[in-house]
Amino acid sequence: MPGAVMAWYRENARDLPWRRPEFADRYGGWGVLVSEFMLQQTPVTRVIPHLEAWLARWPTPTSLAADAPADAVRQWANLGYPRRALWLHRAALEIRDRHGGVVPRDVDALLALTGIGDYTARAVAVFAYGERHPVVDTNTRRVIVRAIDGRSQPDPPSRRDLDAMESLLPAGDAESALFNAAMMELGATVCTARSPLCDACPIAHICAWRLAGRPDTGDTRRKQARYEGSDRQARGAVLKTLRAATSRSVPIEAVLPDWPDPLQRDRAIDSLVADGLAEASGGFLRLPA
DNA sequence: AAAGCGTGGTT
DNA sequence: TAACCAAGCTT
Questions:
Q1: Considering the domain A2-211 in this protein, what is its CATH number?
Q2: Whole-number Å distance between alpha carbons of A214 and A145
Q3: Which GO terms describe its biological process (predicted)?
Q4: CA at A93, C1' at C7: how many angstroms apart?
Q5: Catalytic residue positions of A, numbered
Q6: pLDDT tens per residue across span A65-90
Q7: Where are the domains of chain A?
Q8: A237 CB-to-strand B distance under 7 Å
Q9: Which of A81, A101, A222, A282 holds its CA 20 to 30 A away from the CA of A155?
């Protein structure tokens, strides 16, 4: 299977900034690290412009570390999950203080950085430094569960995913990096969650799920909670006003004065402060200095 | 270990 | 239109 997927990838990979040879100098350890933070749960097409702007402003971890977390949260804009901006800033501090300003290539050192888990650590080690590790994201998990297990949707991430991918990995470093990227790409563009394009799939002939008639095998994934009216929506609205504020501090009574549920607004402010995404003092609220 | 965490595009 | 979906991580 790896051979067919890699051959398909060579012909069909999307033209993305970090894949362009002329941008290779921008996508070393730091460029890949920033891109992977942004890509955690945010679609590629929304990430690209923000990624280029971020790297233009902060071309190194040390340059980001020299600015305030508030600057990172503002620059993050509407990418969503703003604590990623906070965590990325924290990781930059850790890289400056523990690694001399150089993004580490060792998976365990990467895992020890704030905001980096099993996926991101291996993605940096493999795509930035060419090491040989299994890189498993939701796309790869979906391809594997369909092709091998014959089911329609993957289970939540687990240690087994890494083992399954490891057993498929080609022997060479460069080949294994290509295969990791190819599996993600196949899941992202062909073996999609909702309407897979099996006619365009390079491994349709050996796919257990397709050969079984694409049964709906049930979905063990968690359902996403309703957003409209949620605390998350309230947090998002509070943070949006803090980001937009021209003066850096906002009187607390001026934050969402007309929010339908004042208790929910207060809860949102408190939780943002608890998360370090906002600071309250003297009746004012602001992004973290 | 299950739940919480943004935002916007697609179906 | 409401639900689904998107290169996950932390507690």
A1: 1.10.340.30
A2: 12
A3: base-excision repair; mismatch repair
A4: 24
A5: 36
A6: 999 999 999 999 999 999 999 999 99
A7: 2-211, 231-286
A8: yes
A9: A81
